[in-house]
Amino acid sequence: MASLAAAQVQEVRSITRIERIGAHSHIRGLGLDDALEPRAVSQGMVGQKMARKAAGVILQMIREGKIAGRAVLLAGQPGTGKTAIAMGLAQALGPDTPFTSMAGSEIYSLEMSKTEALTQAIRKSIGIRIKEESEIIEGEVVEVVVERAAGGGGARTGRLTLKTTDMETNYDMGTKMIDSLLKEKVQAGDVITIDKATGKINKLGRSFARARDYDATGQQARFVQCPEGELQKRKEVVHTVTLHEVDVINSRTHGFLALFSGDTGEIKSEIREQINSKVAEWREEGKAEMIPGVLFIDEAHMLDIECFSFLNRALESESAPVVIMATNRGITRIRGTNYKSPHGIPLDLLDRMIIVPTAPYSAQELKEILNIRCEEEDCQMSNDALTVLTRVATETSLRYAIQLITTASLVAKRRKATEVSMEDVKKVYSLFLDEHRSEQFLKEYQDEFMFSDVSGSGDGPQLMEVSQ
Ligand SMILES: Nc1ncnc2c1ncn2[C@@H]1O[C@H](COP(=O)(O)OP(=O)(O)O)[C@@H](O)[C@H]1O
Ligand SMILES: [Mg+2]
């Protein structure tokens, strides 16, 4: 019995697991409680409590939507969960708040200027909720009568009788209306809506009163209640789009299909100005609402001085999103200049930012993260194997240890074991080098490699930055 249940669970899992597993796919939120206090392990998140709490405050700020153009910098060593926290924030915000994620280096594309790339990213991070009120007629069809007018000539007249539980009305129909009724195969007993402005007909289903005609209507029929009250109603329709989508749809040179191909090119500034004033008008009339979202720029030290100064200015605009940047650099050269600055970000921009530091994990936290990753990759691992792997993570890096989960699980599968053992982990540890051992290896055999640039003195790795 128990094994049967287990088999079923397995099956359900394999069906829901069609999605691919990515570096951050185990992250499902920030793991905070209602008071924004971080739970120890929740929603795939472990430790890094201060930074998660800070992200929770930022989350609240974004949700309230009042503050535009704030910038946040996540700063810390590689593998301390900066990207993970940004992804958690995106999940916590939900699908209705725009969240754009890009790497600093993405702006160096040949197709558009750096400022255009940044402008598009900013406008992708601002949503507008457009409310449209339309008048509709909603009722159950009592009768449809279509007659050819005497004298022929193809002219037709038609009459439609609709009812609700409270009233019944006759409508005269024009040719266009008759055509669309015939096209939709509307017949007595259908519950329909007609948009008064466009004449669009929508079939909601069959009235329950007609349920006994079931055989005649076929199996697909959906039964609904006969509507109540007035036949004429006002209905509110809400669309949420980003400013960038509005730009693309309105830029004649590209057309909205460009949204799907991703090839939107540069958008003229006149178009953006027109759209800005249109949106402002809608907001004034109460037709549209702005939803400020988040622009996340990972590896922000890859931006150059022009981008930083552009961002400085863009943050001041009323329609600016909250900008979150992440970097793992210390004091380094600002791209495009010969000046050095903390995180490679100019001081005037740093001055506007609130900085959230991330710190290295404790062994216990590393173990917990590795455990979550094992679950995410559907990998059974014995307890001592996990202990060894945690040891590897403390001595090398968390990312390297995460890589070993996948490889060790494959090795275990080769020997038809269901569980990864300590030996499997040791084996892949010797098969695949981490950064430190790889460097040792290079030093040992430097003469046999091409273009070796390491000075023999052994004074640590040399990172050469190519000057522009
Ligand atoms: N607090 C955490 N909880 C769960 N997983 C984490 C946490 N911090 C990092 N990770 C995972 O560890 C890996 C490396 O972290 P990442 O966010 O890419 O580091 P960074 O961006 O700071 O260099 C990723 O797979 C990430 O999802
Ligand atoms: Mg990262």
UniProtKB/TrEMBL annotation:
<dbReference type="InterPro" id="IPR003593">
    <property type="entry name" value="AAA+_ATPase"/>
</dbReference>
<dbReference type="InterPro" id="IPR042487">
    <property type="entry name" value="RuvBL1/2_DNA/RNA_bd_dom"/>
</dbReference>
<keyword id="KW-0067">ATP-binding</keyword>
<dbReference type="GO" id="GO:0016787">
    <property type="term" value="F:hydrolase activity"/>
</dbReference>
<dbReference type="GO" id="GO:0003712">
    <property type="term" value="F:transcription coregulator activity"/>
</dbReference>
<keyword id="KW-0805">Transcription regulation</keyword>
<dbReference type="InterPro" id="IPR010339">
    <property type="entry name" value="TIP49_P-loop"/>
</dbReference>
<dbReference type="GO" id="GO:0000123">
    <property type="term" value="C:histone acetyltransferase complex"/>
</dbReference>
<keyword id="KW-0378">Hydrolase</keyword>
<keyword id="KW-0678">Repressor</keyword>
<dbReference type="Pfam" id="PF17856">
    <property type="entry name" value="TIP49_C"/>
</dbReference>
<dbReference type="GO" id="GO:0060828">
    <property type="term" value="P:regulation of canonical Wnt signaling pathway"/>
</dbReference>
<dbReference type="InterPro" id="IPR027238">
    <property type="entry name" value="RuvB-like"/>
</dbReference>
<keyword id="KW-0347">Helicase</keyword>
<dbReference type="GO" id="GO:0042127">
    <property type="term" value="P:regulation of cell population proliferation"/>
</dbReference>
<comment type="similarity">
    <text>Belongs to the RuvB family.</text>
</comment>
<keyword id="KW-0227">DNA damage</keyword>
<keyword id="KW-0804">Transcription</keyword>
<dbReference type="GO" id="GO:0006281">
    <property type="term" value="P:DNA repair"/>
</dbReference>
<keyword id="KW-0539">Nucleus</keyword>
<dbReference type="Pfam" id="PF06068">
    <property type="entry name" value="TIP49"/>
</dbReference>
<keyword id="KW-0547">Nucleotide-binding</keyword>
<keyword id="KW-0234">DNA repair</keyword>
<comment type="function">
    <text>Proposed core component of the chromatin remodeling Ino80 complex which is involved in transcriptional regulation, DNA replication and probably DNA repair.</text>
</comment>
<dbReference type="GO" id="GO:0003678">
    <property type="term" value="F:DNA helicase activity"/>
</dbReference>
<dbReference type="GO" id="GO:0005524">
    <property type="term" value="F:ATP binding"/>
</dbReference>
<dbReference type="GO" id="GO:0045893">
    <property type="term" value="P:positive regulation of DNA-templated transcription"/>
</dbReference>
<dbReference type="GO" id="GO:0005634">
    <property type="term" value="C:nucleus"/>
</dbReference>
<dbReference type="InterPro" id="IPR027417">
    <property type="entry name" value="P-loop_NTPase"/>
</dbReference>
<dbReference type="GO" id="GO:0140861">
    <property type="term" value="P:DNA repair-dependent chromatin remodeling"/>
</dbReference>
<protein>
    <recommendedName>
        <fullName>RuvB-like helicase</fullName>
        <ecNumber>3.6.4.12</ecNumber>
    </recommendedName>
</protein>
<keyword id="KW-0156">Chromatin regulator</keyword>
<feature type="domain" description="AAA+ ATPase">
    <location>
        <begin position="68"/>
        <end position="360"/>
    </location>
</feature>
<dbReference type="GO" id="GO:0009968">
    <property type="term" value="P:negative regulation of signal transduction"/>
</dbReference>
<dbReference type="InterPro" id="IPR041048">
    <property type="entry name" value="RuvB-like_C"/>
</dbReference>
